[in-house]
């Protein structure tokens, strides 16, 4: 359940303090708290300081810097220095002073503190005042304080440095920065002529402000997110640094810009009464765009701060109506509804969202009974397996008895489903059940004795790669799949099991495919970093992905080479026809199970890449399958619970500008003992091939003159040139740097590389996957 806060301004507090019905020990803030609670709010949000402090600070900071020499000014300067050395409030400069007042208050740090002022002194004194306010809030045991937004892009580094210093000096407290969802004051670039493809691409990274025709912000307006990104990066992704996302500007119609925020630590939503419109009956409601944004962001369970609700902006409903309305939106949020509906993945995953788990290794380890029990709760996986076996039996072309083998039977659920499918198909059939886990084999023996009997089932204990099976089988059934398809070594195990599959036999599953998507998630980045062990940043994890944003879109890119937002890495098919076999029917090496993929994604909006989501899709038989592919799972295996996605982390986040292209290389590698993945990524930006004419590119990319075809892309030998500097009067050696080799070029646009990650997990150094 999200919490709700009522915002009280200084005027509201002043008005309450004038009330003559205040009890003796009741302060205005205590009254605000009880009033707010009586209309359904949990806490109040109150400015920590008042106008008196603002006036004194201005005098100390601004007047002490005035050039004018006077006795007065000297006195102010001395007071300013005294304050700088020992910053402290007078009682009448703060709105709260008692522990019980602060109990239900989220303090707002003075919004006039310009931590990003252009003036050095103002910044300097604003930072001292910020420390002072936070220290006072901390003294009053405030768990969180809301800080004013950055407003000056050129000084955002100074703003962030000051916040970082506060995070270091004020322990425990969460600092939540109020950031507008976008900046409506940014200037719209109106081109005087139609832009070239490159110009529109490049301007999409910088153009901001309202679209003049629709009155909505353009898709690429990410200036406030970019400022937030700079701040949290400078603050080293400190987990105590969070966001109070300000929904004061009217929201854009398109959700792609807004999706970015769902991968960020949005702890508060600032929602003013002015964002509401009146419905036909006069009650406050939100416009469609805001409604759907709030429904989505509710999955992060933010505290909703409602501001200006006492101003009677709407004819009906009063103060309570705003919170009631947002509660109604929360209840109708698909994510929240799914979380409360039994049988959905969201409900099953409660408490596991963004929680890193080591992938299971059922080949190397023997699973616990409780783990099998958890799998067996999945109604969809077993239903689909039964359907696939039923279809395979129904379509089985040969007469006579059909022989089935469940390879890796666990506690026997697939054996039971196979027997049901046999009964439904009315075929004569027999089932072998192979299991190498000695403990699960005890459960199998019990079920064999109590439920199945010798006529229907024979149990075989051992490893399917080496075990002797009394006869060759027609249908080989297995479930050795991991979140990435092959990551629990299904290909290697089934290579061994294929020895006892007849030449015309079939495998269920018949194939499985691995997919990846580039993700942003500050939560997951922090979770992997928190492990301390550097290898933890190179280990794939099983994660119920939650506060994430898939950065890619479907297509785009300069040469049309970008694939969809979630792309296929590789596929395994069974039975295998391509491996060279020994006399015993086993592959000579595991080389045929190595794979690699190089994928290109289009990144429409600026974002930070923290890793990759890994997914799989399996064809069991015919049209029956299993899928955790985010765009297809609902059609193929809705509400299947058995697999959460895999997360491939990055050691260092990679910033991706708007309209960049991301190339992801991923390998499945193998030696005699293990299988592991390695991965890395490179980012590219489109630039005009002729941009050698532009001073920007000549300065930054190549100091040489354009070549004959006017392209800086043609390789030029590096020629040392002796020049004499007019300043130093000594000969300087300069090197002409050859132009950057573009990754791709088309229609006068080239892709130049801007950054790359390290190679992750070389040699399988942090792999858990053992053969
Ligand atoms: C993911 S569990 C599936 C269990 C069961 N079929 C189900 O669907 O609930 C995989 C099972 O295969 C077994 N297994 C894995 N590799 C095996 C191998 N090489 N030979 C025999 N059993 C194996 C594991 O012990 C485990 O019981």
UniProtKB/TrEMBL annotation:
Key words, A-Z: Methyltransferase, S-adenosyl-L-methionine, Transferase
Comp. bias regions, Polar residues: 213-222
Molecular function GO labels: protein-arginine N-methyltransferase activity
An example Gene Ontology biological process: methylation
InterPro entries assigned to the protein according to its UniProt record, in alphabetical order: Arg_MeTrfase, Arg_MeTrfase_PRMT5, PRMT5, PRMT5_C, PRMT5_TIM, SAM-dependent_MTases_sf
Domain PRMT5 arginine-N-methyltransferase: start-end pairs: 346-508
Annotated positions for site Critical for specifying symmetric addition of methyl groups: 375
Active site per UniProt: 479, 488
GO cellular component, one term: nucleus
Database matches in Gene3D superfamilies: Divalent-metal-dependent TIM barrel enzymes, Hnrnp arginine n-methyltransferase1, Vaccinia Virus protein VP39
Location of region: Disordered: 192-222
UniProt key word S-adenosyl-L-methionine: yes
Record-annotated PRMT5 TIM barrel domain positions: 40-331
Xref: Pfam families: PRMT5, PRMT5_C, PRMT5_TIM
Family: Belongs to the class I-like SAM-binding methyltransferase superfamily.
Protein name, entry field: Protein arginine N-methyltransferase
């Amino acid at each position: 359940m999200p919490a709700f806060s009522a915002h009280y301004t200084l005027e509201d507090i002043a008005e309450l303090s004038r009330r003559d019905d205040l009890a003796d020990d009741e302060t205005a803030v205590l009254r605000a708290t009880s009033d707010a609670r009586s209309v359904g709010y949990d806490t109040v949000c109150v400015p920590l300081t008042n106008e008196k402090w603002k006036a004194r600070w201005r005098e100390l900071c601004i007047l002490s810097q005035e050039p004018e020499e006077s006795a007065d000014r000297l006195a102010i300067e001395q007071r300013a220095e005294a304050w700088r050395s020992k910053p402290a409030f007078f009682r009448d400069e703060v709105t709260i002073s008692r522990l019980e007042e602060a109990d239900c208050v989220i303090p707002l740090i003075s919004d006039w503190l310009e931590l990003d002022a252009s003036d050095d002194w103002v910044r300097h004194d604003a930072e001292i005042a910020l420390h002072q306010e936070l220290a006072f809030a901390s003294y009053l045991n405030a768990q969180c304080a809301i800080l004013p937004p950055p407003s000056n892009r050129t000084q955002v580094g100074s703003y962030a440095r000051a916040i970082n210093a506060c995070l270091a000096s004020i322990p425990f407290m969460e600092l939540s920065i109020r950031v507008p969802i976008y900046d409506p004051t940014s200037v719209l670039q109106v081109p005087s002529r139609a832009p070239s493809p490159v110009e529109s691409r490049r301007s999409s990274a910088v153009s901001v402000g309202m679209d003049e025709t629709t009155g909505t912000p353009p898709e690429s307006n990410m200036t406030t997110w970019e400022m937030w990104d700079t701040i949290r990066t400078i603050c080293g992704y400190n987990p105590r640094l969070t966001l109070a996302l300000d929904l004061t500007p009217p929201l854009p119609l398109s959700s792609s810009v807004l999706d970015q925020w769902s991968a960020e630590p949005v702890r508060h939503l600032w929602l003013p009464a002015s964002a509401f419109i009146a419905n036909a009956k006069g009650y406050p409601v939100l416009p469609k765009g805001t409604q759907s944004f709030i429904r989505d962001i509710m999955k992060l369970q933010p505290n909703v701060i409602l501001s200006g609700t006492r101003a009677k902006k709407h004819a009906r409903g009063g103060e309570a109506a705003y919170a009631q309305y947002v509660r109604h939106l929360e209840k109708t949020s698909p994510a929240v509804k799914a979380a409360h509906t039994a049988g959905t993945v969201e409900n099953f995953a409660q408490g596991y969202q963004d929680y890193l788990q080591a992938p299971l290794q059922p080949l190397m380890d023997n699973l616990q009974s409780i783990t099998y029990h958890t799998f067996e709760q999945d109604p969809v996986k077993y239903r689909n397996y039964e359907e696939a076996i039923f279809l395979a039996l129904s379509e089985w072309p040969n007469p006579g008895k059909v022989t089935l083998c469940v390879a890796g039977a666990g506690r026997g659920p697939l054996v039971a489903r196979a027997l049901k499918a046999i009964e439904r198909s009315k075929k004569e059939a027999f089932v072998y059940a192979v299991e190498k886990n000695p403990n699960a084999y005890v459960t199998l023996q019990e079920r064999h004795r109590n439920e199945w009997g010798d006529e229907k089932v024979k149990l075989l204990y051992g490893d399917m790669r080496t075990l002797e099976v009394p006869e060759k089988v027609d249908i080989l059934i297995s479930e050795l799949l991991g979140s990435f398809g092959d990551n629990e070594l299904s290909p290697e195990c089934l290579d061994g099991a294929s020895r006892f599959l007849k030449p015309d036999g079939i495998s269920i599953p018949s194939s499985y495919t691995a997919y990846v998507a580039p993700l942003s998630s500050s939560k997951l980045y922090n979770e992997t970093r928190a492990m301390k062990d550097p290898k933890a940043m190179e280990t794939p994890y099983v994660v119920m992905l939650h506060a994430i944003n898939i950065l890619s879109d479907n297509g785009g890119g300069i040469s049309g080479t970008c694939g969809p937002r979630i792309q296929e890495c590789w596929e395994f098919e069974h039975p295998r026809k391509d491996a060279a076999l020994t006399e015993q029917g086993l592959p000579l090496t595991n080389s045929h199970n190595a794979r690699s993929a190089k994928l290109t994604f289009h990144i429409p909006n600026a974002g930070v890449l923290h890793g990759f989501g890994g997914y799989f899709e399996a064809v069991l038989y015919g049209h029956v399958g299993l899928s955790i592919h985010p765009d297809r799972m609902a059609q193929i295996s809705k509400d299947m619970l058995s697999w959460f996605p895999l997360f491939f982390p990055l050691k260092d986040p990679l910033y991706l500008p708007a309209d960049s292209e991301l190339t992801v290389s991923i390998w499945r590698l193998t030696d005699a003992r293990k299988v592991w993945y390695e991965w890395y990524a490179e980012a590219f930006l489109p630039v005009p091939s002729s941009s050698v004419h532009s001073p920007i590119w000549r300065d930054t990319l190549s100091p040489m003159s354009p070549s004959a075809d006017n392209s800086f892309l043609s390789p030029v030998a590096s020629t040392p040139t002796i020049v004499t500097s007019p300043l130093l009067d000594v000969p300087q050696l300069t090197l002409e740097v050859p132009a950057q080799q573009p990754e791709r070029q088309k229609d006068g646009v080239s892709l130049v590389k801007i950054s790359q990650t390290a190679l992750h997990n070389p040699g399988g150094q942090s792999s858990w996957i053992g053969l």
